[in-house]
Amino acid sequence: DRHEIAGHTVSHTQFLPDKPLDEIIYQVVEDKKAIEDMIGKPIYGFAYPYGQYSNQMMDVVKDAGLLYARTIDNTNKFDFAPENFYAWHPTCHQEKALSLIDEWQKCDQGLFYIWGHSREFAEDWKKLDDLLRRLKDVPNVEYMTNFDVYSLINK
């Protein structure tokens, strides 16, 4: 399995951290159940809608049995292990990834964590294709899902 599906709430609710706790729980838990029923296997990750999260949301995600959650707080860095798996900040959005490849290659070891929405990839498939063609030529690279990274760090 080199592809991973993560939860993203039932209705992609904006300002979810400001909603009542029961609404946050519903959005996270019911989404997780629906995806797992659809794909027939567990999901382990979550992506916060609009990148909006709070300590309370991180607790709900954790209590729902998810192991990590991605933010959209781009670091433009290549840190391998996040400080907090429930506030896992990626390197960059896919729009900026091509411009960071050279910098990333200069790192001895580092996680180049690229995020994007499937609809964005579908809207500009050529950009994704260019990115993947460039990455495939980088030597000594391990391609990993979020679950792979989480599992490696939490052995």
Strand and helix map with partners:
Layout: H1 21-39, E1 45-47, H2 55-63, E2 68-70, E3 92-93, H3 94-105, E4 114-115, H4 118-123, H5 125-136, H6 146-153
Parallel strand pairs: 1-2, 3-4
Per DSSP, the total helix count is: 6
Structural class: mainly alpha
State the total count of DSSP E strands. 4
Based on Cα principal axes, name the global outline.
globular
**Uncertain ranges:** none
The succession of helices and strands, N to C, reads: HEHEEHEHHH
Beta-strand fraction estimate: 5-15%
The order of strands across the largest sheet is: 1-2
Q: Provide the residue-averaged pLDDT.
A: 91
Radius of gyration (Å): 16 Å
State the major sheet. Answer: 2 strands, parallel
Q: Give the fraction of residues assigned to helices.
A: 40-55%
Distance, first to last CA: 19 Å
Describe the protein's architecture and organization.
By secondary structure, the protein is mainly alpha-helical. 43% of the residues lie in helices and 6% in strands. Strands 1-2 form a two-stranded parallel ribbon. Helix 1 runs parallel beside helix 2 and helix 3 (94-105) runs parallel beside helix 5 (125-136). The chain is globular. The protein starts with 20 loop residues before the first helix and ends with a helix. The model has no long low-confidence stretch (mean pLDDT 91).
Key descriptive features of the protein:
single chain, 155 residues, mainly alpha, two-stranded parallel ribbon, 6 helices
Quick synopsis:
The protein has helices at 21-39, 55-63, 94-105, 118-123, 125-136, 146-153; strands spanning 45-47, 68-70, 92-93, 114-115. It has 155 residues and is mainly alpha-helical.
